[in-house]
Amino acid sequence: MEYSARLNKSIYHSYMTLEQPEDMIQCMYIWIDGTGEFLRSKTRTLDASPKDPSEIPSWNYDGSSTGQAEGSNSDIYLKPVAIYRDPFRRGKNILALCETFKYDGRLTETNLRHTSKEIMDKVKDDVPWFGMEQEYTLLTQDGHPFGWPKQGYPGPQGPYYCAVGPTNVYGRDVVEAHYRACMYAGVKISGSNAEVMPAQWEFQVGPCEGINMGDQLWIARYILQRIGEDFGVVVTFDPKPMEGDWNGAGCHTNFSTKAMREADGIKAIEDAITKLSKRHSLHIKAYDPKGGMDNRRRLTGAHETAHIDDFTAGIANRGASIRIPRQCAEEGKGYLEDRRPSSNCDPYKVIELLARTVILGE
Ligand code: ADP
Ligand code: MN
Ligand code: MN
Ligand code: MN
């Protein structure tokens, strides 16, 4: 990958600025592979700009190469469900996020969007809003955190969070490029910051209503990986990339319903926390792609986390499972923050469970 980052970008640019035929639009089909964690993509030419994902033809791919099918019956179908502008190819070219189906129409095991969308349709009248804080870590080719000394460690945590200055900030170009690319694409990116561990960063997406949250976060992750290719920097969503006294990476999920946002909404927030307290282990199982195993490395009770086996809630408490932001407590309305989801969580699953537990009261 470092090799592709070193290719001559001005030669590349001379091709990429060639005039493109009006009736040839590049559509990048993007989908979640069999890990439930990583993305794949491939391109097809369309002859007109689709106004809606349903106008983009379904397609297929070899599921035996993505951990989603046997070699003997390997076709997996792609159904485009959301469109974004392509910040890499620009012009009329697009990114199309897809759901995946087996040959007989059944969902693939990692198509968690489908059920999530059914739940979101059910709870539509409660107008659920989500905002997700995606943390991630930059690494060099060899898996070492980007900018860390090759031997030993950088100084202890303290000066890096929201830092400025060359000794405390590692890899800002990636973050800035990603922010612009997301805005161009049509992702509702709402902020970014350097994190507590050097080379760790966060961006926020939201608030987004319903299923849109999952779509937007997955596309934002895809864009980040592509930018990583261009710079020759590895992006990892591993929830605990460095053992020891280094913060892990989460995907805090902020959540509100119409009732929570209205006057006295704090009652609905407290009611939600009571419901969440009764389904802690169910949520933990769904908050990382390995049924809680990934989060076990991260939710230790230290480094601004609650222990994975405990459910706690508190105002402005960053050591709790659920935090009520101070401002919401003061205004008596707003939203809650679920701090448990892992950085590599599937947002479709996280928002589905929040809606089921809090709104449907399952
Ligand atoms: P933190 O203080 O935990 O670091 P951030 O500023 O990083 O918080 O992220 C806050 C997130 O909450 C943003 O993604 C924002 O879109 C989202 N958010 C704000 N208001 C609401 C709301 N009413 N419902 C759901 N999400 C919200
Ligand atoms: Mn944050
Ligand atoms: Mn953070
Ligand atoms: Mn947070």
UniProtKB/TrEMBL annotation:
Family annotation (SUPFAM superfamilies): Glutamine synthetase, N-terminal domain (SSF54368), Glutamine synthetase/guanido kinase (SSF55931)
InterPro entries: Gln_synt_N, Gln_synt_N_sf, Gln_synth/guanido_kin_cat_dom, Gln_synth_cat_dom, Gln_synth_gly_rich_site, Gln_synth_N_conserv_site, Glutamine_Synthetase
Species of origin: Saccoglossus kowalevskii
Keywords of this entry: ATP-binding, Ligase, Nucleotide-binding
Annotated GS catalytic domain residues: 112-362
SMART domains cross-referenced by the UniProt entry: Gln-synt_C
Class in the EC hierarchy, top level: ligase
Protein name per Swiss-Prot or TrEMBL: Glutamine synthetase
Entry's EC annotation: 6.3.1.2
Stated family: Belongs to the glutamine synthetase family.
Catalytic activity: L-glutamate + NH4(+) + ATP = L-glutamine + ADP + phosphate + H(+)
Domain (GS beta-grasp) ranges: 23-105
Region of interest: Disordered: 45-69
